[in-house]
Design goal:
The protein is mainly α. It contains three helices and no strands. 0% of the residues are buried.
Length: 80
């Protein structure tokens, strides 16, 4: 189970983690054997789990309104 903020896609954390594995674990290296890749990934993942770094969401509602030009759009919300 992985916490995702309300109204956020589950893909956001998955994309962030894939990017971190690429940058921090692989670092542009080519790994020639699957067992080497698995051991490198396991070591990186163990270190990342110990550090428990949070995802800091920086894209705010105000940013979304500006980027997607939502200003002036009125939406109806359900009563649920």
């Amino acid at each position: 189970m992985h916490y995702t903020p309300k109204h956020a896609s589950w893909l956001n954390p998955a994309e962030i983690e894939a990017s971190l594995v690429s940058r921090e674990c692989l670092g542009g290296r080519r790994i020639g054997h699957l067992h080497t890749l698995k051991s490198q990934d396991a070591a990186w993942r163990a270190r990342a789990d110990r550090e428990r770094r949070p995802i800091r969401w920086r894209f705010t509602v105000k940013d979304a309104n500006r980027v997607f030009r939502y200003d002036g759009i009125v939406t109806l919300r359900s009563e649920h």
